[in-house]
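To close the section, here is one more complete example, presented without commentary so you can practise reading it yourself. The ligand is 1,3-dihydroxyacetonephosphate.
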Amino acid sequence: MPRQFFVGGNFKMNGSTESIKSIVNNLNSAKLDASTEVVISPPALYLPLTRELANEKLGVAAQNVFDKPNGAFTGEISVDQLKDINVNWTLVGHSERRVILKEGDEFIARKVKAAVEGGLGVIFCIGETLEEREANKTIEVVTRQLNAVAKELTKEQWAQVVIAYEPVWAIGTGKVATTEQAQEVHAAIRKWLHEAISAQASANTRIIYGGSVSEKNCRDLAKEADVDGFLVGGASLKPAFVDIVNSRL
Ligand code: 13P
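Output:
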């Protein structure tokens, strides 16, 4: 079975009631490639609005989730609370949380486990900084990030995970990875899946690219054998997102 192309829109800490209504209404009425899975991720505050307004073809993801069940965790949101409002996906391990909020590999891995065990789909983000790339540590870094999650999940649970490779130096910089750079890392991740998890996980897990994806560069990236979609930041707030969803038409 071929892997279904997957395009996520990460709004980050952007938007207002008015602008999010307008983005979702635009997506509801747009002609989107029916063979592509589309999941949008507004700030937590707008998750109920987004889920209520978006048509049933659009998935909705939280940008983060906590690793513990409901309880005394001020400011956090639980897996059960997301499910309560019909949000079936969450991002985990975005580099802005790793770098700015100092979330570590083990904490992130526990969140992936909590989300997967609660039945959510997880867009698990990994990627190296510029410093790490320049030191030729890209594969070492993504392997370390993947290994942390592998310790927490069963082989079968990888079916609920989409891996987002987002080089930190490409995020919000306009400096997109070349098609060769993206394919090289995606192929290495697929090889890791084969060796560390299973042949099935390697064949079936979507590996998507994020970092300055635009309506201009998405078509070439989408042609790479191991690029199964995108995680889009800035451009997901614009009408250009529709062109990215339709990058294979
Ligand atoms: P940009 O598309 O704005 O570079 O952001 C990418 C990203 O971080 C998506 O999660």
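Once you have examined the tokens, check your reading against these statements. The pocket of 1,3-dihydroxyacetonephosphate is lined by residues 10, 94, 166, 171-172, 210-213, 231-235 (CB under 6 Å). The longest strand covers residues 121-126.
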